[in-house]
Amino acid sequence: MVAIVHQTDKRSGITYAYRSVSYWDKEKKQSRAKRTLIGRVDKETGKIVPTDGRNRKKKEGNPPVKRNTKRVEEAHRSFYGATYLLDAIGEKLGLIQDLKQCFPNTYEQILSVVYYLILEDSTPLYRFEKWGLLHKHPYGKDITSQRSSELFSSITEANKLQFFRLQGKRRMDNEFCAYDTTSLSSYSETLRQVQYGRNKEHDKLAQLNLALVFGQESNLPFYYRKLAGNIPDSKTITRLLEELDILDHSRVKLVLDPGFYSEVNINNLFKNHVKFLAA
């Protein structure tokens, strides 16, 4: 495993960055690490300034060190690989650009929370602090549990629609889009939208319905909507068309499966001059 290790010389206060490569020592039968100096870490920018390590004491103005004096150092290790991968995916799909446009002041925090939820799966957000110390992430600072709650509550409906609109433009022109709903079972007794309905997981639980529009080829979503669990699929089409119109996707053609067929839907589609094909 390759990692970037930071070590701080407490005498000079200078932090150096090393490339640490782990390997197995067959003779000692234990894991060892080989470190190669990369450079010094700039205190203001946090960037690594390359250096060959020669004459460091003279160049950096370090006080002379007596021979046989041990240096006291601090080691810090950060994981970069997954972050760079997610960064590359976000750039390729336009996610980072669209988030920056919709949330100019908080997009880095949003990305950091998203990275954490992807990499740590079902781990609760209050453990972000420990994860953030070990992983490189866009925000680069701790996000407390309270701060994450404030972050979520700051995302308005207008923000979401703007993001859907930007992502939709990247999908609608290049591929057909699919629309479907699913149900999420819940034990909650306080969430208003958790209701008993037709549970697609065949659980005997109340549920929350989730409507999703995504690219047929890319399988990438660009619109979602939470719905009460007791709303059948056939009653979601009218709301979908209204919001697609708001998102500047008024010229659509629908292919409906039997779950979305109803007299009301058919009449509304004719009334709004929407082309459709019903199975």
Structure in words:
- It is a single chain.
- With 279 residues, the protein is an alpha+beta fold.
- The chain has 3 domains: 77 residues, no CATH class; 75 residues, no CATH class; 105 residues, Nucleotidyltransferase, domain 5 (2-Layer Sandwich), CATH 3.30.420.
- The chain is built from 9 helices and 10 strands.
- The strands form 3 sheets. It has a 5-stranded antiparallel sheet, with no helix packed on it. Strands 6-7-8 form a 3-stranded antiparallel sheet.
- β2 and β3 form a beta hairpin.
- The longest helix is centred in the middle third of the chain and has 16 residues.
- The two termini are 53 Å apart.
- The model has no long low-confidence stretch (mean pLDDT 83).
